[in-house]
Amino acid sequence: MCRRKTKTGAAGFTLVELMVTVAIMAIIAGLTFGNMNTASYRLKSKTKILIGSLQRARLEAVKKNANVSIKFDRDGDGNADHGYDIVDALGNQIISVNNKSITFTPTNLTITFTPIGTCNAGNITLVSNGTSEPEYKITFNNVGRVKFAKTK
User: Fold this and answer.
1) What's the DSSP call for residue 101?
2) Which residues sit opposite 5 in a β-bridge?
3) What domains are defined for the chain?
4) Beta-sheet pairing, 122-128 with 102-106
5) 99 contacts 82 by C-beta, under 8 angstroms
């Protein structure tokens, strides 16, 4: 940068140099914040939370030596609700998760883990409500292994 002395002898930047610096900073900020998609990050976060809940249900079943279930149909209407409950064999609630911004589409409305850690195989698709954002699909096999992938 060119420093010039004014009539008073003080050094400083020219107006053009300051404007170029501000323009470069604005371009960098636009590129950085333009790529952030909060709905996508939120959906991925909720997917990982559900995976953690599946793993916790499996561990609780082994620890308690009893069946532990994840129920997506809380009100008994035959449809998946916006959230899920983890309950033990006696019906005691272990965890309850509510989420109005995510739609869960499980192949089974109840996933039951046995005392040896196995479960009924299936998958769960998660989608953000009201957006055309990516979907995530969680798959789990009958031995309790859980994987997830982005489908869109």
Assistant:
1) T
2) 11
3) 4-34 (no CATH), 38-150 (3.55.40.10)
4) antiparallel
5) yes
Cα angle 45-115-53, degrees, rounded to a multiple of 5: 10
- Amino acid occupying residue 120: N
121, 112 Cβ separation under 8 angstroms: no
First to last CA, the chain: 48
Residue partners of 139: CB distance under 8 A and separation at least 6: 122, 123, 146, 147, 148, 149
Encode pLDDT of 60-101 as tens digits.
Answer: 999 999 999 998 887 878 788 788 899 998 889 988 888 877
84 contacts 72 by C-beta, under 8 angstroms:
yes
The pLDDT, as a whole number, for residue 22 is 93
Q: What is the pLDDT of residue 13?
A: 83
